Structure formats: C-alpha cells, structure tokens
Amino acid sequence: MSLDTAEKQKLIETHQVHATDTGSVEIQVAILSKRISKLSDHLQGNIHDFASRQGLLKMIGKRKRLLSYIKDKNVQKYQDLVKKIGIRG
Length: 89
Fold this sequence. Notes:
Low-confidence stretches: none
Largest sheet: none
Number of strands: 0
CATH class: Mainly Alpha
Distance between the termini: 24 Å
Mean pLDDT: 92
C-alpha cells in the first residue's frame, strides 16, 4: 500500500528537521509507520495475501533498524519521535 503525494507531503512537513529536509530518519520512520498501518488494515480483510504480509514484515524490520539508529544517536529525539508517531505503547 503506497501513500499518495498529498499524504506523504503532509508527513514530511510535520516531521522535517529543517526547511529543505525531505529524507531524514525521522521522516523515513513516519512514512514507514503510515504505510505499515495502511497495510495492516489491508491484511485484516485479506488474510491470505501472503506477499503483502512479507512486505509488511520487511517494513517493520526497516523501521526497527531506523529507530535503533535514532536511539543510539540521541535518546531524547527517539522518545519524542515515538511519542509523536504513537508507536510502542
């Protein structure tokens, strides 16, 4: 499940670090989180879509690696991002 341009632009604007930022780790995590939630909704209705399930697991792994990178660099930035996106309880 891909995001349309307007959704992606809105995510970029809410998570960018500076004015010309389009691909920082925070933005990548936000976009992945949105795609994960959309794909999870799709899989709840289509339980036999195993190819999409595999893609979902890959996206979750990538988001986990990016979050681990942020946590290693700056714990406060990690906590703020997790709270802003609404993941991890």
